[in-house]
Amino acid sequence: MRNGRSLLLVDDDETTRDLLSMLLGGEGWQITVAKGGEESLRIVSQSPPDVILSDLQMPGLCGAPMATALRVSMSALSEMPLLIAMTATTASSAPAGFDDLIQKPFDPGDLLRRCEALWNGKLPATPGACAMDATEPVIAIESFYRMKAAMPAAQLRSLYDFALVDAEARIARMSEALETSDDTTYRREAHALKGSCAMVGALRLRTLASTAEETGLPSKPLTGWKPLQHFREELGQIRHMLESLLPSTS
C-alpha cells in the first residue's frame, strides 16, 4: 500500500497550479506539476507519484481518455497511483478511470483523508460540492478559516492578493474578447477564472464565471452597456470583505 506524499498536479492554468501547489505543499505534499495530459504521461513514465490530481477540463488529453492513457502507461507498476479528478463544476461522481472526484474549493487536509480511505480500501464520501445560494457570503467563511489555520497571515494575504490580481487580468481579457467577439477566448478566461476563484472560496465570483463559460458572449444592448460590470463589482466586494477578515500587512 502506498502511503507517500508525492503528488502530480495536472492543470492547464498557471494560477490554479500555483495556488494549489502553495496550499497542498503546506500540507506536506511533494508537488510536481504538469500543464496537461500529454505532459503528465511523460512525467509518470520517469517518476510515478503516489497521487495524480487532475483538472477535468483542459485542452488536449483530459478526462476519461487521460485516465485510460495513464493507467495503460503505468500498467507494469506493482501499485497504481491514485487518480483523483477535481472540478469547479457541480458533479456527482468521478469520470471513468478515476478513483475519486473532489470539488473546488476543497480542504487540503481532506485530500489526504480521501487518499488514505482509498489506500485502505474504503470508498470516500460523496464529493463535497460547494453549493451556493443568495445567502452565501462573498468569501466562503469555512474555506477562509481552514486556510487561515494552515498558514501564516502574511502568506494567506499574499495568496488572496495573487488570486485577485489574476482575476482582474482575466476579467480584462474577457472584456477585450467581448469587444472583438472572440467567444473562444471569453470562455477560456471564464473557465480559468472559475477554477482559481473556487480555490480561494470566492464562490459568488466563481458562479459568475461559470455562467459566462456556459453561455459564451452575451448580446450587446443598445444603450447603457457596461461589459462585465457585475464581475468588477464582485471583485470590489471580495476586497472589502478581505480587509475586514485579514487586514493588509503593508
TrEMBL record:
**Positions of post-translational 4-aspartylphosphate modification:** D55
GO BP terms in the entry:
phosphorelay signal transduction system
Provide the HPt domain boundaries: 152-245
**InterPro entries given for it?**
Bact_response_regulator (IPR050595), CheY-like_superfamily (IPR011006), HPT_dom_sf (IPR036641), Sig_transdc_His_kin_Hpt_dom (IPR008207), Sig_transdc_resp-reg_receiver (IPR001789)
> Which residues are modified to Phosphohistidine?
H191
Domain Response regulatory intervals: 6-119
Q: Which GO terms describe its molecular function?
A: DNA binding; protein kinase activity
Tell me the keywords, alphabetical order: DNA-binding, Phosphoprotein
Q: What is this protein called?
A: Response regulator with CheY-like receiver, AAA-type ATPase, and DNA-binding domains
